[in-house]
């Protein structure tokens, strides 16, 4: 297994900072990886290369040629494989060396020497399995409910924040900030600025919700683990948003590195028929800009926090969801660090 981990074993602190392994993570919008092109990106503190095969299948490889370590992202797209530009070594989507043009028949050919990640495309995004042991099959990926429901229409919003990934997830597990930070927004101007919260367990995670208010503001959030970690939340819509149900968000946050995060928000609404057409038109012409303004408020707040802001806090009852999340992630990071050390 060691050949697949150029950085060697990771400590619990490093895993906590750069992202948990042995789970699926959203990587990038599907539109980023076009046919015939190669895309380089950094996720979980490591460099990767993505490309589409001739049949449209997305492949994701460690961005390192097995010959001399040159970046495969500088190479050539050859349909079902990438040819390293340094010496022409050809690697397929499984990480197997298919050809060494400089020395045909050498012992590199036929060997799986580049780490390849299992990949799926869901809701317009590429999602990859970052396993500890590359030989172990990934756990099943269950699609978030709103993205699998034909009665729901959604838009994928992608951005990147210069803040630790855990800050982004914790922001979503903090419904009370909506009544303050977003008080002047088009959809979160109502509701009380004081509340009591509770945690309600589910078979895939938990709800963190207000006990004394519903349907007024950002009143609840559900944290879900279905192979990939995601949150679901609901915000009431004013009448000016057109016909249809409440406005919902499915959110995911993927570490780029310890200080930068890839943010995925699927903004959705349960609408069908003509209501769906009206909602999508209003979203593109009016509502999208307003939603971006709200998102920018979150970004500015989290980017303004010190990287160690969570080390000097004084928490209270509203922070139970954040505390629960941190304990779970910290325990998982320590367990995974031990597995890597033992390997």
From TrEMBL:
Entry keyword annotation includes Metal-binding: yes
Enzyme class of the recorded protein, top EC level: oxidoreductase
Domain named Rieske: residues: 24-128
The enzyme's E.C. designation: 1.14.13.-
Protein origin, superkingdom: Bacteria
Keywords (A to Z) from UniProt: 2Fe-2S, Dioxygenase, Iron, Iron-sulfur, Metal-binding, Oxidoreductase
GO MF annotations, alphabetized: dioxygenase activity
Protein name stated in the entry: Aromatic ring-hydroxylating dioxygenase subunit alpha
Species, as recorded: Gordonia hydrophobica
């Amino acid at each position: 297994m060691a050949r697949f981990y150029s950085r060697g074993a990771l400590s619990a602190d490093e895993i906590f900072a750069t992202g948990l392994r042995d789970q699926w993570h959203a990587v990038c919008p599907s539109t980023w990886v076009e046919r015939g092109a190669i895309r380089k990106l950094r996720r979980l503190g490591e460099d990767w290369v993505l490309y589409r095969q001739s049949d449209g299948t997305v492949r994701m490889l460690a961005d390192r040629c097995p010959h001399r370590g040159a970046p495969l992202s500088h190479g050539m797209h050859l349909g079902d494989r990438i040819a390293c530009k340094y010496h022409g070594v050809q690697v397929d989507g499984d990480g197997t060396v298919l050809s060494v043009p400089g020395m045909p028949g050498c012992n590199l050919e036929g060997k799986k020497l580049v780490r390849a990640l299992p990949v799926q495309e869901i809701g317009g995004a590429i999602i990859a399995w970052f396993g500890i042991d590359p030989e172990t099959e990934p756990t099943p990926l269950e699609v978030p409910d709103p993205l699998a429901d034909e009665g729901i229409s959604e838009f994928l919003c992608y951005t990147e924040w210069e803040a630790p990934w855990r800050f982004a997830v914790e922001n979503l597990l903090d419904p009370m900030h909506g009544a303050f930070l977003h008080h002047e927004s088009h959809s979160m101007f109502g509701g009380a600025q004081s509340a009591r919260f509770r945690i309600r367990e589910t078979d895939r995670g938990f709800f963190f919700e207000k006990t004394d208010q519903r349907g007024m503001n950002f009143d609840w959030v559900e944290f879900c683990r279905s192979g990939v970690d995601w949150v679901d939340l609901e915000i009431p819509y004013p009448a000016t948003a057109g016909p249809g149900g409440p406005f919902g968000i499915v959110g995911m946050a993927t570490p780029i590195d310890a200080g930068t995060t890839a943010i995925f928000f699927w903004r959705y609404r349960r609408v069908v028929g003509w209501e769906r057409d009206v909602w999508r038109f209003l979203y593109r012409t009016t509502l999208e800009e307003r939603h971006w303004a709200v998102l920018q408020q979150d970004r500015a707040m989290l980017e303004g926090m010190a990287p160690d802001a969570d080390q000097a806090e004084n928490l209270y009852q509203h922070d139970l969801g954040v505390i629960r999340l941190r304990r779970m992630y910290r325990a998982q990071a320590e367990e995974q660090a031990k597995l890597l050390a033992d390997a």
